[in-house]
Amino acid sequence: MKRIQIVQLSDLHLPSQGEKFSFNQRLDPQKKLENCFADVSRLPEKPEMIVLSGDLIHEGTADDYERLREYLFVKQEELKTKINVILGNHDRIGAFYAGFYGLEVKGQEHYYYRQQTSLVDYYFLDSNYQNMEQGFLSADQLTWLNEKLQENTNKPSLLFLHHPVAGTSLETMRFSILQNDQELLKIVQGTNVRGIFSGHIHFATNELLKGVLCSTAESTAYHIDCTDLHDHLVADGSGYNLISFDGQNIGVENRVLLAPQETVMHIAVKQTDYVTADFFDKQVHN
């Protein structure tokens, strides 16, 4: 298989019209995103696709998602590359469906799908749960994913979702990431899945878990320094991931376009482990 490259842009946090930049950003996140697309346009190889892995608009309206759709249509035409999107915890699914697709949906419907090519199967999952910080994959998605992976065991697969899975590099981020990540890893183990790609934490990591590359992307909007377990530092920063895959070997380049600037916000973190097992049930009934 010839090497293909996939661009992953994550955590755009574009402001809703008339709203301030989220998390005290001082630099316009739209301009930072534009710089990322400009860098993509200069790549020597045309990417196979571009994936926007969640937190597209920061708690936006249907009008915001309509503008985003128009913007991405222009970029897709300019770059001659397919752009796929998934949702994060700061996205609002009703507004997304209404603005991006002109559809009205009822309830907390999840947005997930598969895209097949002659070389690779791509899966785009929805780990947003009730707009909470923590991620959770619904039972219907896990069942669907398991069934689809068993349909085609010869072709390699790549997964994209907003919340990452835990590993040694994210041990202290368990309070925030995918809470049922072990269920996901159990499903993909022994299958044709070669990589799981996510965002959410606003810094880049790469880790091999049970034979699968698990990678997170830097935010296009702002960086979060989580070195201090209980005091996370927010700073303007910008970057994206460039994934290279030849069917067997897979690697990720973290392209930093703006190194983190001065701290603009502190995020206090009390506990760093997974939330309790009954946490999600409590949220539903509150």
Distance between the termini: 51 Å
Note the beta-strand portion: 25-35%
- CATH topology type: Purple Acid Phosphatase, chain A, domain 2
Helix content: 10-25%
**Which word captures the global form?**
globular
User: CATH superfamily assignment?
Assistant: Metallo-dependent phosphatases
Write down the overall mean pLDDT: 95
Architecture in CATH? 4-Layer Sandwich
Describe this entry's structure for a reader.
A six-stranded mixed sheet has the order 6-7-8-9-11-10, with no helix packed on it. The model has no long low-confidence stretch (mean pLDDT 95). The longest helix has 18 residues, at 62-79. Helix 4 (139-151) packs parallel to helix 5 (181-188). It has helices spanning 29-41, 62-79, 93-101, 139-151, 181-188, 279-285; strands at residues 4-9, 14-15, 49-53, 57-58, 82-86, 113-116, 121-124, 157-160, 193-198, 205-209, 212-216, 222-225, 231-236, 238-245, 250-258, 263-268. The protein has one domain (4-285): Purple Acid Phosphatase, chain A, domain 2, CATH 3.60.21.10. With 286 residues, the chain is of the alpha/beta class.
